[in-house]
Amino acid sequence: MSDITRLNLSRRQFVTGATAGGILLGLGLDSYAVGSSPAKNPQVQTLRGNSFNLAMGYQPVNFTGAQRTATAINGSVPAPTLRWQEGETVTLRVTNHLAHDSSIHWHGMILPTGMDGVPGLSFDGIKPGETFEYQFEINQSGTYWYHSHSGWQEQTGLYGAIVIDPKDPDPVAYDRDYVVLLSDWSDESPDRIYANLKKMSHYYNFQERTAGDLWKDIKNKGVVQTWKEREMWNTMRMKQTDISDVTGYAYTYLMNGATPDTRWTGLFKQGEKVRLRFINGSAMSIFDIRIPGLTMTVVAADGQNIEPVTIDEFRIGTAETYDVVVEPNADSAYAIFAQTIDRSGYALGNLTPDVAWRADTPKMDHRPTLGHGDMGMAMNRAGMDHSGHKMNGMSAMNHRQHGTPPTIVAAGYGNRKSVTANHHTTEFGPHTDMLAEAPQNGLHDPGLGLREHRQRYNRKVLRYADLRNLTSTQDKRDPSREIQLHLTGNMSRYMWSMNGIKFADAEPLELTYGERVRITLVNDTMMTHPIHLHGLWSELETGDPDYIPRKHTILVQPGSQISYLVSADAIGRWAYHCHLMYHMPGMMREVRVEKGGRG
Question: What does the pLDDT look like over 553-596, one tens digit per residue?
């Protein structure tokens, strides 16, 4: 049954950057022979079976024209795609050939806490020269991924895809199956990137507003309103274009390890349905994805089947996965276009019936700017008066609701109620620079930069509100209690936290084994945060209690709130954090699930 494959590829085969040339062909090649030599078309290996040897080591790469050293698994960036079968037990022996401790976390997998791969919580990590054996039963199917949970290793190459075939007939019909793994690469070391951000949070943001933008604002809003808004932003010492911490200035965006110049390419034949398994394995990048000329039918979110939704575009937060099915016409090549949320760059692939055909590169959409609604203020998103907005301490805010027990509504409907932000005393001080007093509802919001795409481009954009699980909700209990957590920080000082407390100083979030709780996240910052809960499903409350979609990562828009249900059905210590890598040291909690209650 085992298929232990250890790659032994030459350096030439790993060099996948602009200087490498050639086309990277799809990961689904085992279902479609292309007939190209491996030397010209290096591939990410797919490993199948239930027993695997994975070796972490250093690997020279060249994505930009400059040779750098990546941290790789089996000599590959991305790491090999692991293909498992639902119902089996997998064994993975991971050997660390790095000079530092390492680990692998199986993102989205529901497994015993000791197998989760988070040093300090799940286990001690893997020491240099040591081998750690992971073993767990697979009780789910779908698209997932894996990555290091040690230091910045994920940024430098330690990530790969997981595809789990269902034990029952797949409800999704398709003829061809490709992984589309998105990531971001920098020739700068992660330590240097983080140090730069700590010194100047907008170090990588060169998308300043211009005199032309000022003139547009005056024409649209008038001199007085424009003056008030500019004064407000200057007072806050924040930028309307501060959307991504690390931008295309530092990053080269990759699709299955290929740059936009080299382009990963997937092939199809006339009349085929193609399933594309999108995984955002980046460290810091949120992508908006479209395939010009094709509509996409979304069939799975975070590995779980959903009722199909046909759309033209969708946003994928860091660590999320979405499966879509497309039906391309055989007389065209199509661009798989993943532009970053701040429009500073893109990953690019090619879907074509002929390897010699290459689709035109789409233009990037308009560059978004932050507005008043992204501050969590109960006003329209434009033309608002900010005279009452306070920063850094918020001494004038109304906290009459603080300490008031929340009203618990039925399961599935948590996002229908308006949330009163109950700010904790720990949220006040120089470590937070803003608090959302009236957070927007994040369920129906496609997100910053996508809100006007129907009007601008006639595109339908996926919203969380569109997600309904394909099968009925397993745990139909109402929540017995609610937890409101605030995503907080001082953006100009690059300090991140939850409830104003950084991870190093935080107490665990305690859940009683068997209980069902509602977690409401309130994003007090002006950044979009992908929040990932290990070991337990996050059941997003989209308004239908019978078909609640299950996710492992929830994207929380700036100045907004969103709620989901959690069944505490797995004892152990679990990580709970923002999946933007440079936010993680502060914006993280331990979730502890124990029998016998919360003390």
Answer: 999 999 999 999 999 999 999 999 999 999 999 999 999 999 98
Structure tokens at 120: 């300090």
Instruction: Please give the backbone phi and psi of residue 373, each rounded to the nearest 5 degrees, phi first.
Output: -60, -25
Q: CB of 583 within 8 A of CB of 516?
A: no
Which residue is it, tokens 């398994």?
277
What single-letter DSSP state applies at residue 313? Answer: B
Structure tokens at 145: 């991924």
Say what the pLDDT of residue 228 is. 67
Q: Are 526 and 488 a contacting pair, CB within 8 Å?
A: no
SS (H, E, C) 51-95: EEEEEEEEEEECCCCCCEEEEEECCECCEEEEEEECCCEEEEEEE
Phi and psi for 462 in degrees, rounded to 5? -65, 140
Give 422-427's long-range contacts (Cβ < 8 A, gap of 24+): 422/484, 423/394, 423/397, 423/399, 423/486, 423/524, 424/486, 424/499, 424/500, 426/499, 426/500, 426/501, 427/486, 427/488, 427/499, 427/500, 427/524
Q: Percent of the chain at pLDDT above 70? A: 83
pLDDT tens for each residue of 117-174? 999 999 999 999 999 999 999 999 999 999 999 999 999 999 999 999 999 999 999 9
Phi and psi torsions of 377, nearest 5°: -110, 140
pLDDT of residue 419: 72
Label residue 400 left, alpha or beta by phi (over 0 means left) and psi (-120 to 50 means alpha).
alpha
Residue type (1 letter), 145: W
Helix (H) or strand (E) holding 14, with range, is helix 11-14
Closest CA to 24 of 35, 10, 38: 38
Instruction: Tell me which of 83-92, 182-191, 220-229, 350-359 is least confident.
Output: 220-229
Structure tokens at 137: 């039963």
The torsion angle over the Cα atoms of residues 522, 524, 529 and 530, rounded to 10 degrees, is -10
Residue 38 has pLDDT above 60, yes or no: no
* 572 φψ region: left (φ > 0), alpha (ψ -120 to 50), beta (else): left
Tell how far CA 220 is from the center of its chain.
Answer: 35
Distance separating alpha carbons of residues 58 and 422, to the nearest angstrom: 47
Q: What's the half-sphere exposure (Cβ side, CA atoms, 13 Å) at 111?
A: 22
pLDDT attached to residue 436: 85
Give the separation between CA 137 and CA 109, rounded to whole angstroms: 10
* Count of H-run helices and E-run strands, the chain: 5, 33
- Is the model's pLDDT at 212 over the cut of 80? no
| H, E, C per residue of 473-535 | CCCCCCCCEEEEEEEEEECCCCEEEECCECHHHCCCEEEECCCEEEEEEEECCCCCEEEEECC
Interatomic CA distance for residues 115 and 105, integer angstroms: 8
What is the reported pTM?
0.87
DSSP codes joined into one string, 382-404: SS---TT---SS-TT---TTTTP
Contact assessment for residue 135 and residue 92, using Cβ atoms and an 8 Å cutoff: yes
341-384 tens-digit pLDDT: 999 999 999 999 999 999 999 999 999 888 777 776 654 333 33
pLDDT digits (tens, 9 = 90+) for 418-431: 777 788 889 888 88
